[in-house]
Amino acid sequence: MAPARDRRTGFSRRRQYGAFLAYVLAVAGAVVGAVLLVASTFQPPAFAGLRMTLGSATAPISGAFVAIGDAVNDIPATIGHYFFVHDENARLRRELDQSRKLLMTARTIAYDNRRLRRLLAIRDRTPDTVVTARLVSSTGTSGRRFALLNAGRWQGVAPGMAVRGAEGLIGRVIEAGPAAARILLLTDPESIVPVRRTGDGLPAIVVGRGDGTVDIRSITTNVRLSRGELFVTSGTGGLYAPGIPVARVRANGADSAIGQPFIHPDTLDFAIVQRAFMPMPPPTPAPRP
Amino acid sequence: MNAEQYNPFDPGLPPARARALPWLTVMAGSLVAIVPVVAIVPLQPPLGLLMLLAWRLIARFALRLWAAAPLGLFDDLLSGQPLGSSMLLWSITSLAIDLIEQRMVFRDFWQDWLIASGAIAFCLTAGRFVALPVGAHVDAPLTIQIALTILLFPMATRLVAWIDRKRGRNEVGI
Fold it and tell me: pLDDT confidence of A280, banded at 50, 70, 90?
């Protein structure tokens, strides 16, 4: 490409000053960017209001796209169901017969469990659902794993609430705007979830790796983690209700292993926002001297 | 463009709209973040950066030198990076390309592509270290993302050249 003649400013003072001012503004832009970066590094929620206001504008648009995509995806599934309805009926009848026996056993166990817990005088808290909404988009270019939820303060969502799907834990709310909220997904490198092993209650933490898997780190040492073991939330810290499935061990390991989360964010349809299981007590006012 | 379609006296778009168009295309590139996909692995190419580089290298006076900062701010609000990171990195890239332009005055497309590749690799790598702890396991996806973005650059330049031709040949944005 030939050099553009516009670079020369000639004798025109106006163009000379204009060119100089453009450089000054460009450098000033970089400096402002650096200052904002430092500010948001030391105080991450500093610009949440700005971000979430824009998110509240984009989330309904994404939601409309989701609805269109669902409608298109439903067409082949509906046709498929129409043809395979007889086979499916037979299969479901078989499954119903099998699960009836299991259900009877489970009812007995549940009754026993309730009775024993009452004997022990354990006070059970059930997490209450705030809202059920869709995850409409995510940060696909950045290494951080955030998703945008199509519900915000107007629906009662507040930062710190837990977000779960039908199969397991999704993450937690970190910023809430008027009509959208930002969810820190389980697989984000800065997400930490306290968990326990389903078999023996071994305490561990699940830390995101950033590539769609998580690290399961045991809190005690000399522990074997073997493939297929399940980890559920322990309720420690009071944010997540206990017993929500989190991850499954993917490869054997000692003290630490790579795990696969139960949720598949790309196939998520609905996310359930729950109030923090055991919210932090309000800070006590400092005694006056 | 066919010879009969070409009209040297075509006035193109009115100046205000012709000046706004590059801004709008870069912002549209940033807005790709709102497509309804919940990605597990960060592989989506940063189309806002790609459009900015294409405008900067193909039609250098379409965007002012300082335009990188406000466009980067808009991208930061959508991309999930800490606020200010694109603002800083895009401004640095824009100034660096200006320095390179003073040295390499006669360039062809391959050199433009090379410059863009360097800028993309710099922005994405620096953005990774700004946003994530060093121990995060995102280096393989990051490499793929950089490669994808570099391979998309020729398409971005085709798009930008097409838009620039539609804008008309008025001398805006000195």
Answer: low
**B34: which chain A residues are within 8 Å (Cβ-Cβ)?**
58-59, 61-62, 136-137, 148
A29:B87 CB<8 A: yes
Beta-carbon contacts of residue A154 (< 8 Å; ≥ 6 apart) = A178, A179
Mean pLDDT of A79-107: 88
Q: Which of A283, A78, A55 is nearest to B78 (CA)?
A: A55
* Interface ipTM above 0.90: no
The percent of residues in chain B predicted with pLDDT above 90, rounded, is 52
For the cut 80, the answer to whether the pLDDT of residue A277 exceeds it is no
Contacts of residue A176, defined as CB under 8 A and 6 or more positions apart, other chains included, come to: A52, A152, A153, A157, A158, A159, A182
Q: Mapped to the 3 state alphabet, what secondary structure does chain A carry?
A: CCCCHHHCCCCCHHHHHHHHHHHHHHHHHHHHHHHHHHHHHHCHHHHHHHHHHHHHHHHHHHHHHHHHHHHHHHHHHHHHHHHCHHHHHHHHHHHHHHHHHHHHHHHHHHHHHHHHHHHHCCCCCCCCEEEEECEEEECCCCCCCEEEECCCHHHCCCCCCEEECCCCEEEEEEEECCCCEEEEECCCCCCEEEEEECCCCCEEEEEECCCCCEEEEECCCCCEECCCCEEEECCCCCCCCCCCEEEEECCCEECEEEEEECCCHHHCCCEEEECCCCCCCCCCCCCCC
pLDDT reported for residue B172: 42
Lowest mean pLDDT segment, chosen from A3-17, A108-122, B52-66, B134-148: A3-17
Looking at beta carbons, which residues of chain B come within 8 Å of A28?
66, 69
